[in-house]
Design brief:
There is one protein chain. The protein has six helices and 15 strands. The chain is an alpha/beta fold. A six-stranded mixed sheet has the order 6-7-8-9-11-10. Strands 3-2-1-14-15 form a five-stranded mixed sheet, with helices on one face. Strands 4-5 form a two-stranded antiparallel sheet. Strand 7, helix 4 and strand 8 form a beta-alpha-beta unit. The longest helix is centred in the middle third of the chain and has 12 residues. The radius of gyration is 17 Å and the shape is globular. The two termini are 33 Å apart. The protein binds fe (ii) ion.
Length: 245
């Protein structure tokens, strides 16, 4: 198991109805630029970590699905707070990945296990947390986790104030008890962060839609340049690189 797994993460795409501009930004072009960038070549896995749509538009999912028709690598998706899971099921194969109204699952790839949680409604359910605890305990080596909301405050004045994960304390307690989990990947904040949470690191991906100024307590657009991240997961290390266009 000496191979290095290369995983790309794209977050907060916020596509509207098809190829229309969203708040004056060509969000489809931003998404394509991330997807097709040199840094995202030869991925073992691509993860879309929520908010594919601006407002749960079917046209957004249709557009994303159309780009993945000939996509060469496996890819995984979880919903964000702007998404509608029932609609997403019509465009993406989520069989075996949905329980009740939540999309959470384990994805095994080349001898490693990658976990996904659903925080689209603003929290992580007890069912998900119980499952995560039990399922990660079955894995011998290190695992990594993706979720839409960061499970901690990040020092983003606007997002921390208004849109943080609701049951953060409960979630942190469970995550902190998972000994083979060190690296947690999130999005949602429209800004790049690396936050230490005890012995764990939360890597918050920038958005492809736009970045939000973290220093203002109100919404302030920082940049319309898309960002994404690439994870290189070796036998004894996990390296995360952030890219901006
Ligand atoms: Fe979000």
């Amino acid at each position: 198991m000496s191979k290095i797994l290369k995983i790309g993460q794209i977050s907060d795409i916020h596509i509207g109805n098809g190829e229309e501009l969203v708040q004056g930004i060509d969000v489809c072009a931003n998404f394509r630029n991330a997807l097709n960038s040199d840094s995202m070549k030869n991925l073992d896995l691509l993860v879309l970590s929520g908010d594919l749509a601006e407002n749960a538009e079917a046209g957004a999912y249709e557009y994303v699905a159309s780009l993945f028709k000939d996509y060469k690598s496996p890819w995984c998706v979880i919903p964000g707070n702007h998404d509608n899971l029932d609609l997403m099921k019509n465009y993406f194969d989520l069989s075996g990945k949905v329980s009740g109204d939540r999309c959470f699952y384990r994805y095994d790839l080349k001898g490693r296990s990658i976990f996904f949680l659903d925080s689209a409604c603003g929290n992580v359910s007890k069912e998900e947390l119980d499952w995560l605890k039990a399922e990660t305990a079955k894995v011998k080596g290190e695992v990594i986790l993706f979720m839409h909301h960061p499970p901690c405050f990040c020092g983003h004045r606007f997002m921390d104030l208004r849109f943080h994960l609701e049951n953060m304390v409960e979630v942190q307690e469970v995550l902190g008890g998972i000994n083979n989990l060190t690296h947690i990947y999130a999005g949602h904040y429209h800004h790049q962060f690396e936050v230490n949470m005890g012995r764990q690191i939360v890597h918050v991906a920038p958005a492809t839609q736009f970045q939000i100024d973290p220093n203002m307590p109100y919404f302030n657009l920082q940049s319309a340049a898309p960002g994404w991240q690439v994870i290189n997961w070796g036998e004894n290390f996990v390296e995360t690189e952030v890219y901006f266009e």
